[in-house]
Amino acid sequence: MKRDETISICKAFGIILMVIGHANCPGPLSNFLYEFHMPLFFIAAGYFFSLKYLDDEATFVKKRIKGLYIPFLKWSVFFLVIHNMMFKLGILNEQYGNATGGVTHPYSWHQMQQNLWTMVCAMGGYDQFLNGAFWFFRGLFVASIAYLVLFKITNAIFNKTFVKHFTQNNRENNDINATADNQAKGYGTLAVPITICIIALLIEAWKTLEGLKVINLIQGGNREILGVFFFGCGFIFKQLKDKYRVTWWATILSAATVYLFSRFAPSSMGWRMDFNRFIALPLPAICGFIMTYNISHQLSKHNGRLKDFLVFCGNNTMCIFVFHIVAYKVVSLIKIWYYDLDYLQIGCHMVIHKYSDTDCFWILYSIAGVGIPLAWTWAYRKISTLIKSDIN
Prior knowledge:
Elements: H1 5-22, H2 27-34, H3 37-47, H4 57-89, H5 109-122, H6 135-172, H7 178-185, H8 188-210, H9 222-240, H10 248-264, H11 275-279, H12 282-300, H13 305-314, H14 317-339, H15 361-391
Helix pairs in contact: 1-2, 1-3, 1-12, 1-13, 1-14, 1-15, 2-10, 3-9, 3-12, 4-5, 4-6, 6-7, 6-8, 6-9, 8-9, 10-12, 14-15
């Protein structure tokens, strides 16, 4: 079956918006895209969730390990190994750091070992200044497996309840048959995922209202719980897709909703979630996905270089997640030269903050953050293909 290119394009928009947001873009744009660009990835992942995994949990878990845990561990360890080397090159330093004044430091041998343990056991401990987006790997890994567990439990409860209900009714009518049994077992097709989404929202509401933390999840669990909700939204959307019609008025209405929330009640899928920010997130996040899906659907119908680029980008989000902050350093060198700044400002996280409120370097940062990782990926595959063809 051909992969759904609409979702690939959606993911391309999501990753591009993430890079723009990290590039210190203007405030109104930043508020707008943060409303939905990370929830979009969870919704897209839920879109591909299949009911076959209810009877084949091992395959699903293996896929999650291969697609999320292993890449996280591989690249986290890589950046752990080169962390102190980055200080020798000045790419990281103790003079310049994030916008609030925080800096990072070289690791001692003990700290490196502890970070390794945290990576392996809790999907944390990664280099915050070079791997700032790595929380996503843990968030989706935990959320997707939690969704599978909740689906199995809820589905079992629903099936038991409704099979009994339909059986009793049909016995009274002397009409018990396979059709009635199948009707009962299929009752929860939408009821189950909707119930899971409601449960996730109620848990997150309780958690944020009381300021609670899931102590065995790095950053407290807000992203993982909301991840379950958005993952479920993606699965529900897939079930209703055949009935859904893409219209421009829905696109405009969705965009207007995202804008109004970003203007008057800004929120994001951040780990410092309070109740007000939680309440303000689900609706614009879903509207943002609908807006992006509608635009992506229209673009998917027209072949050309733009579509090819977006599909390639959407199918290779991993390299951008991993390397976009490193790619920013190329533009930081240009900015240092342009403004005659201290070379050590290359260590600013994620980009150089000086003059960022007035210049447009965020555009160059965005182009580099997407373009350099993709160009490297494309070139690597081309060279690998040529080498293999020469060998054969």
